[in-house]
Amino acid sequence: MKKKLFSKNEMKELEKNPNVLSVTEKVITYHPDFKVKAVLENIKGESPARIFMDHGFDLDIIGKDLPRKRLYRWRKIYNESGEMGLTLDNRGKTKVERTSSKELSMEEKLKKAEARIKYLEVEN
């Protein structure tokens, strides 16, 4: 299946959204705070499409299937690394590079553990 390419008008429309950091004709880079909010809302039972629409995204522009795909990936990251995982940009790095390039400080470990606890509480 062919990947959707955004037109210049669609890119301009997407850039107006405060939950978007940048847009190219192929890629939308989302604000880390939006990713965390979206995951938490999804955990509480909100549908991916509803989350994206409530945050100002036009599904006719981004595609009806994209919210489900993004939330699936973001939840997986959230389960593995907590909120910290959603705030770091690890694109292009292998798993070894992500973990070994920066040892976590005690504060970061605490944040990660708190995010995991928060996720498990919401899931229960």
Could you explain how this protein is built, in words?
By secondary structure, this protein is mainly alpha-helical. The protein has one domain (8-123). The chain has seven helices and two strands. It has helices at residues 8-15, 32-43, 48-54, 59-62, 66-87, 95-100, 106-123, and strands at residues 20-23, 28-30. Strands 1-2 form a two-stranded antiparallel ribbon. It is globular and about 45 Å long. The mean pLDDT is 85.
Essential attributes:
mainly alpha; 2 strands; 124 residues
Strand order of the largest sheet: 1-2
Q: Which outline best applies?
A: globular
Rg for CA atoms: 16 Å
What is the average of the pLDDT values?
Answer: 85
Number of helices: 7
Q: What order do the SSEs take from the amino end to the carboxyl end, as H and E?
A: HEEHHHHHH
How would you sum up the major sheet? Answer: 2 strands, antiparallel
Span of the ends, CA to CA: 37 Å
SS class: mainly alpha
Helix content: 55-70%
Beta-strand share of residues:
5-15%
**How many domains in all?**
1
SS elements, strand count: 2
- Low-pLDDT parts are none
